[in-house]
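tool_log.txt
---
The assistant was asked to compare two proteins side by side. It first ran the structure predictor on the initial sequence, then on the second. Raw inputs and outputs are pasted verbatim so the downstream comparison step can read them without reformatting.
(1)
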Amino acid sequence: MTSQQQPGVLTGYRVLDCSIAMAGPFAAQRLGDLGADVVKVEPVTGEWQRHAAAGGAGGNRINVSFLSLNRNKRSLAVDLKTDAGREVLHRLVASSDVFLQNYRPGVAARLGVDYESLRAVNPALVYVSISGYGEDGPYAQRPGQDLLLQAMSGAMLSSGRAGEAPRAAGQYIVDAVTASTAFEGVLAALLHRERTGEGQLVTVNMLDAITTLQMQELSVHTVGGLPQTRSDEPHAHVYIRAPYGAFRTADGYIVLAFPPLKTLGEVLGEDSFLDMVDEEHGWSHRDEIFATTARHLGTKPSQHWLDAFAAAGIWAGPVYGYADLLQDPQIRHNGTFVTYDHPSEGRVTTPGFPYRFSATPPRIDRGAPLTGEHTREVLGELGLEGAEIDRLLADGVVVETA
């Protein structure tokens, strides 16, 4: 950090990221964006995500998946299955604030890096454990994979046509919300520690994260007693009246969100809508309203309808692809994407930060590291002499990559 750079909100905190794939690394990256010193503790062969490129998007030395989830981290590559490797980690834990892992239940204990073992080393440690379904229980050993959790949570049956196969979200939505949940858990636990000096165990599981995300929908079911019933038309949400969803126009698609039916009828020239009551017919005639609206919207281009709906005060908007999103003026104004130079991957553009701080803004200090790129640096900070580090390297306990 140069003298001109302001410290981040979490500058001075050290986070040990022992997680793999998306949820854990994404949470740790958010902490790094806020200034925390995040040390990615990975196997000597590199974390799993280094070898699994989403979309087949490889790179020069780091694939895009890994690059996108591991900026603002240093890499320590160490074999935790060895006594010497565990000793290195324990020494690092002693001077760290947060330990984050998403091992399958039971693995952390076998490696000697479970909460009780590390709390004995550092009682003030905030220890975050992420799992698929929970630390124990009948599903504890099931694989916590995004699509499986989307399906199990009920979310996939809140949209689409009745009788047709449910459609998954076009994002790794369960991983993403789990990452945000873990990020929140870390901040809350650190605040508690600042007030009391006490560390603690924080557990997060993907099933609870995606379930509680549906707070409103599930409460409508459990409190309101309304069944989750899909309609024949591709309505976008079972608990919102018609019309609500994506519609084809003469040259593309737009989305339309529960407009007043009388106003919609006036814009479309559809007399049958003029005497309808929104909160009555919007439910009882949901398929009819959707189909009639779709027929009208298909006759003219998207911009015609967007202009007409804007003039009438109706909520409508374009359906973007990623290329469109990048060019959107509000996205550009917000600085939603960041562009920086990576040592091996060149100039890269990725999504930036979801928050703003006036005094301690997030920033990118380094791109995603190579496997063990900072092994020697991190071990030197622990007080290990050069000869001792060389011995660990020679024994294969740790590796470094230049």
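(2)
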Amino acid sequence: MENKLPFSQILAIGLMLFAMFLGAGNVIFAPMVGQQAGSNTWIAMGGFLITGVGLVLLAIIALTRGGGTIEKLAERVHPIFAIVFSILLFLTLGPIYVIPRTTSVVYEIAINPLTGASANTSLYLLIFSTLFIALTILLSWNTTKFVDRLGKVITPIFVILLIALIGKSIITPMGSIGQPQTEYLNGAFLKGFTQGYYTMDVLAAFVFGGIFIKSISSLGIKSEKAVSSLFIKAGMITIIGLIALQVSMAWIGASSVESIGFKANGGEVLAQSAITLFGEYGIYMIGTVIFLTGITTNVACLAAVSEYFEKIIPSVSYKKWLIVFSILGLVITNFGLNTILTLASPVLLLLYPLAIALIGLIFANNLFNGHRSVYIGTIIGTGIVAILDAIKEAGIAPEAINNVFGFIPLFENGAGWIATGLIGFFIGLIIAKSRKEPSTLITMTGQEIRKAQ
């Protein structure tokens, strides 16, 4: 008989799951949405919360239904796709995007405001990032419970800080909410929808979800049905926490323009807002916590990507991968936060639609009998437009691409992959029926049942 957990323990698990997604990087995007969207902030945040928060829970549940790892989930399309998608996912979660982004965010919020306007920013960033990533290597060298233990300390501190910051911004607002900027005048919801990609939380859920599944087995939760049930309960707590976090960040951004003006990135928005609200002490308050959340994010991501590559290329040890990815992350960090966000945009516009399509397919699996052709058709349909969006975002012939493919619904808003993914779905279904492909059903407990046609 399995243990029935009391609500207090479910709450603790939900907060632990929240801590896994609580990183320095995912608090910098909602403030920018708030600054740019102005009076359309809450419309834009509706879209942002779908991709930046709501899909996190669905991604973890999809993982439990799809085999427990991202590789098994993606293999439903094709083994080669699983390898390519997983490698891109882990590299983005590690040295290409998350580690440089996190390190740069910590610098922008905790260090840069203290250096003075006349400081050599590039030199300070190089010195800080070298020391910060060296600390990341040190803490990642041997697998310990450092991140878990520190996370339990950081979460309450961060919540207290947020309550203080948001409370002060409501009691003494920095300014009124202004008019939306050009890109948020029309299509604010879809713009927010694509901005939610940058939190990386859905992609991180594919990695951290597997870790979470393993960790709860020690609580006496064994069956897949019980695991899924616990995920839903704990996940709702996590979702509430993430919604509160992102909405609060959007409010700070929306109300900050009169006092601090428009900023180039969310790190600057948070740093300058903290100074405006609390004076000199504000930057020390938020800087300390951002530093701690940043180091835990870096350690978790560096360890995860190094363990993954040691698994697929065992001839290179975990510690060697740590060094390789740390050096790569250090180099990319020193391009600066704005450049990192710009360089990462094409990759995220490629990976996120594919991830969303995989989640949708897992939940709809039994409706189309789990036919592989449906998985393949949907991913091809989604992937074609996702690649075009990535090329556009990289600045390669965006006008020409829009002119040629603008007939696709929502294409110019970055959501054309929805229509082409659905077309691919139905083409795959027709092919599966004509070939009489075998069925692969998923039970409520997550078990697979294969049937010949």
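---
observation on (2): The CA atoms of residues 113 and 166 lie 20 Å apart. The chain has a mean pLDDT of 85.
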